[in-house]
């Protein structure tokens, strides 16, 4: 049966015309009329050519989609989708994929160094650091959202607490990175407990808005407590980490000690390896926790809170532990962020950061550690690569989030791997896994 | 006392604007149980469309009062219509394909839509502030008196009167719409049980679309009011107003229309009083703290139905 | 004197539960005998599940005293305990009318979650577990063995690694019972365990309950609609109607009680009044 014979062109045209009319209403205002502010007051700049182009794109796009995708029996999108491998890691091969990814991650900066040289590779390694920071944040949030099923829209608060703790501890007590790092993590975890305590009996969207509120409260306090946090100016001259006491300076530092020529790339690669190891620790601890009673209780909580309580599980403490551990990792990532930037201000800790981290977790596939990595690379890496299109890249970023989610509502990697098995480790289909109400 | 009254009037005005946006959140939440994060940005789009229409119609402060009011009414209608198209489109593109899917997916598309809308307006309209000269000035003096040799005036400006009256009228209209018409009945049916409603012949998709259209239209009204009251807008106003309005909706008990209005008023009052008596820097902290405290003691908000745990 | 009067494991005295103006359970008192199978029956809406929810702590009764007398002799006042402690310390486990399994977790994992408190102690509240101390490893092995023995009892050992939501209905019911048993309770509360089962499955269930009682000495309290099941397996039956107890005794006693017949079959209003008068007379005499 030929697929083209059943296409109803009239319907497609009608549909395209309607779409055109709607897009005319949409773009006719927001693109067609530009509000110009001048000394004489306000004026309108008409841009009907741009509207024409936009409407034409919508009409043709809609028509082509009708004919080639929605109405045919073998849509083009299926062919395109077939080109993209269906990432469904089965429990057996998962281990090898993981090892390969880790080895590649360790080798990456050296590969880049050999290809682009010290000067040329810098931006790529920097990008790697950024992606890994988000991987770590994603993994931290995955404990709260993916495992325990608690929707946290204010995760960035703990990132901020970690960063400021490090900066303030380093400034006031003259402590080095390696002492401040655990302290910052503990402080962030402590805040997780303090903030979590009153709110964890709230459910669903009430919890979401309260966590969002806490995130905003912390940001506003950082912004206005000028004497302590430097207000909008932030804190600067945050000490850089050392390599077993060796600083990455031109003289008598890391390069001299090892007899290398000084290059700023040393510090960058060191930073890269540092965040990689921190992220791997996060992953290791999370995987370990999943197999412990506390981790199983998290997942059980996500599946059915009432059943948990009927089995004698203290759900409040379970939720608190998820919140605190997630916050601790957020704090670690925050103090890394502070030491990498050398400067922090409240601007880095807005709601949009929380939203991006949450998007990474959900797009990657709730509870999937590998999914977080892929989503970070796609979102953050992709975002940075389109630096030239500064103006449009946030727009594209937003639309990309919508598109991926519609394409794969369960995230890029779906399916849950059991924490314990008798005979065979079988992946649980994502459709059966609950997403939690908290 | 005079100061208190003045703050009260200002607070109610701000609260009315929040309340109008909050209704959009609460209606959408009631019917499909999702946080429509893009709603604040629909409000922002509404304020831009309102400004465009005002410029195109050539309304200025010099326009005679009677014509000014008629023209503003026209602006209101046009803004509502065009903003509603945006609200409808957002639902059609980002939420409908995920209907019945798992809960976090539409939340993420909503955040994505919010980012996209903000940046779309930033690129198409520019990042600069768009100021508007006050169109309506003057007002009536509610109280005039002398306290310790200083003249105190409590003023209710015409603009504030317009905002409060419009809000009251729209609230009454919408309450009637939901409780009396067949659309309202379909809406309430979908809130209870979408599948059953569909089986009984309710067009669920259409009902949900109309809910978004109504929410967007109300946000457009709020956008116009915001523009006229504060006289300046930019592409970023949607975020904070949206978060505040959502806070208001949750505070009042999400899903409840009177709750949204009450929550809006409360948030407006808290902010205004906090700025008036303490410091304006921490007004957001005050609003959010009240939310947290209320939720700790009343986990379903002020007017929300208490959630009986089904065991 | 019957066992539940001589040796009660659970004593409920003057329990009332109100939801706003609605009185779901009114001044209810009864005893559950140690190692008995006790059935709570009554028409729909009689307040049976409410009684369960009060016993297991999901609701706090408006009035009344619920005391659990453990085999060790220790006494717990349930109305003062949060729900999870009732399962953890007082030794009361339950199942639900609409099965509440952890659907996305495997059958084995469901049983492991039920042994949470034992494993939590063995893992030294996670701190030891994270470093893989040997006592935790042993405890975990033991927990898996325990789970395995339960899977054999409920005939689900071949499906141990399948997600719980994939099981057929009857198997889900059995798994929920096994999961409750993994918390090592002294009273097992079952909310309509036979609902939706076919006669064959219903029969298996009866055997399982008998096995549980014989092997572990667990007292069983169950809510049931199916009279044949109730009459066959229970030692003691309590009948509720409109939140009040209308009969309490052995299955034979209850079967012939006119109040029960009236409540189940329905009688004319006058007859009820006549019956009520009789009751009053009995009470006053």
Please give a structural write-up:
- The complex is a heterotrimer of chains A (438), B (311) and C (285).
- Chain A has 438 residues and is mainly α.
- Chain A has 2 domains: 4-83, no CATH class; 98-432, no CATH class.
- Chain A is built from 17 helices and 4 strands.
- Chain A has helices spanning 9-30, 48-70, 76-83, 94-120, 122-147, 156-173, 177-199, 204-224, 226-229, 254-257, 264-290, 293-303, 305-310, 315-341, 351-364, 369-385, 390-407, and strands at residues 33-38, 41-46, 235-236, 343-344.
- Chain B is globular, with a radius of gyration of 20 Å.
- The model of chain B has no long low-confidence stretch (mean pLDDT 88).
- In chain B, the strands form 2 sheets. Chain B has a two-stranded antiparallel sheet.
- By secondary structure, chain B is mainly alpha-helical.
- Chain B has helices spanning 2-32, 39-57, 65-95, 104-125, 158-180, 182-192, 194-199, 204-230, 237-252, 257-277, 283-297; strands spanning 130-131, 139-147, 150-157, 232-233.
- Chain B has a single domain (2-297), classed as ABC transporter involved in vitamin B12 uptake, BtuC.
- In chain B, helix 1 (2-32) packs antiparallel against helix 8 (204-230).
- Chain C is α/β, with parallel strands linked by helices.
- Chain C has 2 domains: 1-91 and 185-285, P-loop containing nucleotide triphosphate hydrolases (Rossmann fold), CATH 3.40.50.300; 102-183, no CATH class.
- Helices cover 44% and strands 22% of the residues of chain C.
- Chain C contains 13 helices and 10 strands.
- Chain C has helices spanning 3-6, 48-55, 83-88, 107-114, 116-122, 127-130, 134-153, 169-181, 199-216, 227-233, 251-255, 258-265, 269-284, and strands spanning 8-19, 22-33, 37-41, 63-69, 75-77, 92-94, 187-191, 219-223, 236-241, 244-249.
- Chain C has a 6-stranded mixed β-sheet, with helices on both faces. Chain C has a 4-stranded antiparallel β-sheet with strand order 2-1-4-5.
- The two termini of chain C are 21 Å apart.
- Chains A and B meet through helix 1, strand 1, strand 2, helix 8 and helix 15 of A and helix 2, helix 3, helix 4, strand 1 and helix 9 of B.
């Amino acid at each position: 049966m030929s697929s083209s014979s059943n296409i109803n062109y009239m319907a497609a045209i009608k549909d395209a015309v309607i779409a055109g009319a709607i897009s005319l209403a949409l773009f006719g205002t927001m693109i067609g009329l530009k509000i110009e502010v001048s000394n004489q007051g306000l004026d309108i700049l008409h841009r009907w050519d741009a509207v024409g182009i936009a409407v034409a794109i919508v009409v043709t796009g809609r028509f082509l989609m009708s004919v080639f995708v929605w109405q045919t029996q073998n849509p083009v999108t299926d062919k395109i989708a077939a080109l993209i491998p269906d990432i469904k890691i089965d429990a057996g091969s998962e281990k090898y994929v993981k090892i390969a990814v880790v080895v590649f991650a360790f080798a990456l900066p050296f590969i880049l160094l050999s290809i682009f040289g010290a000067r040329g590779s810098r931006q790529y390694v920097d990008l790697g650091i950024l992606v890994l920071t988000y991987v770590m944040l994603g993994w931290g949030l995955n404990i709260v959202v993916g495992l325990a099923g608690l929707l946290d829209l204010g995760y960035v608060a703990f990132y901020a607490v970690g960063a400021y703790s490090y900066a303030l501890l380093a400034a006031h007590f003259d402590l080095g990175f390696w002492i401040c790092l655990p302290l910052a993590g503990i402080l962030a975890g402590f805040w997780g407990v303090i903030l979590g305590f009153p709110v964890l009996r709230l459910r669903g969207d009430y919890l979401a808005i309260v966590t969002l509120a806490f995130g905003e409260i912390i940001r506003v306090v950082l912004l206005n407590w000028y004497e302590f946090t430097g207000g909008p100016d932030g804190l600067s001259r945050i000490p850089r980490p050392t390599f077993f006491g060796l600083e990455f300076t031109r003289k008598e530092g890391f390069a001299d000690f090892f007899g290398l020529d000084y290059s700023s790339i040393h510090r960058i690669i060191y930073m890269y390896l540092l965040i990689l190891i921190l992220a791997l620790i996060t992953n290791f601890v999370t995987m370990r926790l999943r197999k412990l009673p506390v981790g199983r209780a998290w997942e059980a909580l996500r599946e059915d809170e009432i059943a948990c309580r009927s089995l004698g599980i203290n759900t409040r403490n379970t939720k608190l532990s998820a919140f605190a551990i997630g916050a601790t990792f957020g704090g670690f990532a925050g103090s890394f962020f502070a030491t990498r930037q050398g400067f922090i201000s409240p601007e880095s800790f807005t709601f949009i950061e929380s939203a991006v981290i949450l998007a990474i977790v959900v797009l990657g596939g709730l509870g999937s550690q590998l999914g977080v990595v892929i989503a970070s690379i796609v979102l953050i890496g992709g975002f940075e690569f389109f630096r030239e299109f500064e103006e449009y890249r946030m727009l594209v970023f937003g639309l990309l989030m919508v598109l991926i989610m519609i394409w794969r509502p369960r995230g890029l990697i779906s399916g849950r791997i059991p924490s314990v098995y008798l005979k065979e480790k079988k992946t649980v289909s994502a459709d059966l896994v609950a997403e939690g109400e908290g | 006392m005079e100061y208190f009254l003045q703050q009260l009037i200002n607070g109610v005005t701000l609260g009315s604007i929040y309340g109008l946006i909050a209704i959009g959140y609460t209606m959408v939440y009631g019917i499909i149980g999702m946080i429509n994060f893009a709603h604040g940005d629909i409000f922002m789009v509404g304020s831009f469309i309102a400004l465009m229409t005002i410029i195109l119609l050539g309304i200025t402060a010099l326009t005679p009062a009677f014509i000014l009011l008629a023209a503003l009414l026209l602006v209101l209608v046009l803004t509502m219509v065009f903003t509603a198209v945006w609200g409808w489109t957002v639902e059609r593109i980002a939420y409908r394909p995920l209907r019945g899917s798992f809960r976090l997916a539409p939340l993420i598309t909503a955040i994505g839509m919010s980012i996209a809308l903000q940046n779309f307006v930033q690129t198409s309209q520019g990042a600069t502030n768009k100021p508007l000269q006050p169109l309506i000035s003057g007002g009536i003096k509610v109280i005039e008196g002398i306290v310790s040799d200083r003249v105190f005036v409590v003023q209710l400006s015409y603009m504030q009167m317009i905002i409060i009256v419009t809000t009251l009228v729209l609230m009454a209209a919408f309450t009637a719409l939901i409780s009396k018409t067949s659309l309202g009945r379909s809406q309430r049916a979908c809130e209870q049980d979408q599948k059953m409603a569909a089986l009984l012949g309710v067009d669920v998709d259409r009902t949900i679309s109309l809910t978004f259209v109504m929410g967007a239209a109300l946000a457009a009204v709020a956008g116009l009011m915001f523009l006229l009251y504060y006289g300046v807008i930019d592409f970023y106003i949607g975020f904070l107003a949206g978060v505040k309005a959502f806070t208001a909706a949750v505070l009042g008990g999400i899903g409840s229309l009177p709750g949204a209005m009450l929550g809006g008023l409360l948030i407006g009052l808290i902010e205004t009083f906090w700025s008036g008596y303490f410091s304006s820097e921490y007004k957001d902290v005050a609003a959010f703290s009240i939310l947290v405290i209320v939720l700790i003691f009343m986990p379903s908000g002020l007017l929300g139905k208490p959630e009986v745990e089904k065991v | 004197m019957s066992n539940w009067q001589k040796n009660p494991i659970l004593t409920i005295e003057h329990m009332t539960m109100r939801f706003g103006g609605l009185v779901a359970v009114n001044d209810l008192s009864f005893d559950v005998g140690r190692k008995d199978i006790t059935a709570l029956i009554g028409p729909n809406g009689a307040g049976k599940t409410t009684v369960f929810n009060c016993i297991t702590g999901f609701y706090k009764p408006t009035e009344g005293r619920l005391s659990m007398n453990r085999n060790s002799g220790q006494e717990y006042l349930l109305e003062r305990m949060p729900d999870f402690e009732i399962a953890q310390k007082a030794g009361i486990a339950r199942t639900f009318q609409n099965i509440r399994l952890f659907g996305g977790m495997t059958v084995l994992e469901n049983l492991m979650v039920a042994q949470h408190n034992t494993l939590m102690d063995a893992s030294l509240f996670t701190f030891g577990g994270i470093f893989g101390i040997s006592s935790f490893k042993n405890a975990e092995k033991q927990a898996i063995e325990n789970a395995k023995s339960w899977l054999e009892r409920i005939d689900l050992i071949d499906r141990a690694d399948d997600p719980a939501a994939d099981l057929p209905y009857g198997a889900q019911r059995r798994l929920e019972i096994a999961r409750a048993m993994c918390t090592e309770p002294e009273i097992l509360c079952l909310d309509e365990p036979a609902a939706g089962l076919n006669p064959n499955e219903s029969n298996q269930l009866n055997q399982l309950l008998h096995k549980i009682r014989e092997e572990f000495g667990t007292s069983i309290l169950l809510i049931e609609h199916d009279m044949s099941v109730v009459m066959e397996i229970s030692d003691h039956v309590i009948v509720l109607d409109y939140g009040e107890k209308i009969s309490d005794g052995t299955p034979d006693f209850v079967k012939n009680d006119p109040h029960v017949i009236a409540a189940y079959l329905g009688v004319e209003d006058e007859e009820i009044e006549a019956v009520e008068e009789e009751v009053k007379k009995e009470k006053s005499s």
